[in-house]
Amino acid sequence: MVFLPASKLVARCDISRDTRPSTQPSTTTEQPMNDKIQAVRGMHDLLPGALAHWHTVEQTLREVGWQYGYEEIRTPILEKTALFQQSIGEQTDIVEKEMYTFTDRGEVSVTLRPEATASTVRAGIQHGLLHHQQQRFWYLGPMFRRERPQKGRYRQFHQFGLEAFGWSGPDIDSELIRAGERIWKKLSLNGLTLELNTLGSAQSRATYRQLLVDYFTAQRDQLDADSRRRLEHNPLRILDSKIPQTQELVANAPNILEVISEAERDHFDALCRSLDHLGITYHISPKLVRGLDYYTSTVFEWSWGAAGEPLAICAGGRYDDLVSLRGGVATPAIGFAIGLERLVELLQTMAENTASLANAWSNALYFIDATADHAHSAMSQLAEQLRDHGHWVIAHCGGGKLKQQLKRADQSTAHLAVIAGESEREAGVVQIKYLRENIPQFSVPQRELVDWCNANLSRRGQPKP
Ligand code: HAM
User: Fold this and answer.
1) Measuring from atom 32 of ligand 1, which residue has the nearest CA?
2) Nearest to 189 by CA among 11, 53, 12
């Protein structure tokens, strides 16, 4: 077996070094000329061993998107800075301190996208896709936030997102949560917890904001410095504080559910009933606020991890005002995004999933040609014929002894080795050797190999069920 332990498969994120405060300037221009240039801090290479896992996960995500009628949208990685400032909110951590922003040739301020909801809204309006229409989109791609790197928090990371435009009822909220649940099921991922809340309309939030300002102002002395600053600009974010002393104050703070209107309450109750009906477990967390300012009404987060330090794998909610704020016709909208690094890392830490994910690496036939004339033997023609039929074939190049070639096959991603030595060539057969399973080796006539593969293997060389 050549399956690597999960620890070796994790994207080579050597974050242990990253978490130390850097005393050295990290810009490459300040590196001596003969230093080896390393990747930018908090940005990681995904190497082939880890990418096999990623492909499995990405394929599952795409399939679920399509299963629910969502269509792919791809927006540029670089957008005008104003888009994020005005959509995510000037007073958010993302806009205040995490964006990679620069002036393009001294003309326009641009930013590497920290998320894709704002870009999807921008593209939808720009191309007239949202004008009195209903749309379901999915996207998958890299995002950039200059956060302090640590496990599960990177400066370049990937998100898969679903965004639905044009539906105001709770049925689409429920659909999105069900799509999330389906993804976890398909990946055999257990133990994620779903937190749910509503932030009401802009009007309810204004009332709530004032209640919070009054409450926290009365206890200003006990607030941490960050929360005191937030009290001025964005008091809802105090509810998200990780400082224990502030958390104690938050526990007794007013509750948004006390101030939302009857219609907002009905929407939230209908969503909860729908989830109850479907048997989806959730916790109502009236203090759940999101780090982006565009949310209205329903918000939710799927997390995993020990109590006290759960890590959000997927998060989202409604943003019914964003399309009109960006200049489009008022369009209700809701979406979520999954952090792929966190999802893949979680799957890798769950032992029972490692085996099923590992199967995805065995994905080809390894052609071993130990005949004397290997450079122009019948084996290369056979390999081409198999590729014509859609099979994935890794051909051993460079000759060598059978034992050496088998070792290479073992180290490859292949599931099966197809072997021809001198005696096989003379007999017009090839040997089939299962590399990952304990199945005795056997021979197949060369002229029947394509039929045998078509009948017994999936396109990628895995045995058919
Ligand atoms: P978000 O909560 O900022 O929401 O990010 C969504 C997910 O992306 C998080 O739950 C987490 O899994 C992942 N994530 C965020 N930051 C990082 C990071 N620095 N490193 C690794 N993973 C990270 C949004 O981005 C919204 N656009 C979601 C949404 C879509 N709301 C409506 N539609």
Assistant:
1) 335
2) 53
Out of 157, 297, 302, mutate this one to test ligand 1's pocket (max ligand atoms within 8 Å of CB): namely: 157
Place of tokens 């003969």: 34
27-73 per-position pLDDT tens digit: 334 455 668 999 999 999 999 878 878 988 999 999 999 999 999 99
**Which protein residue's CA is at the shortest distance from atom 15 of ligand 1?**
339
Pick from 273, 266, 254, 149: nearest CA to 210: 254
Q: With contact defined as beta carbons under 8 Å apart, do 8 and 358 qualify?
A: no
* Residue 193 region by backbone torsions, left for phi larger than 0, else alpha for psi between -120 and 50, else beta: beta
- Report DSSP state, residue 38: P
Closest approach atom of ligand 1 to CA 316: 31
Comparing C-alpha atoms, which of 165, 204, 203 is closest to residue 329? Answer: 165
User: What does the block give as tokens for 149?
Assistant: 């790197």
Measured CA to CA, the distance from residue 308 to residue 335 in angstroms comes to 26
Classify strands 393-395 and 101-104 as parallel, antiparallel or unpaired: unpaired
Predicted TM-score (pTM) of this structure:
0.84
Ligand 1 centre and the CA of 404: distance in Å?
46
* Strand bridging mode 101-104 / 108-112: antiparallel
CA of 336 to the centre of ligand 1 (A): 8
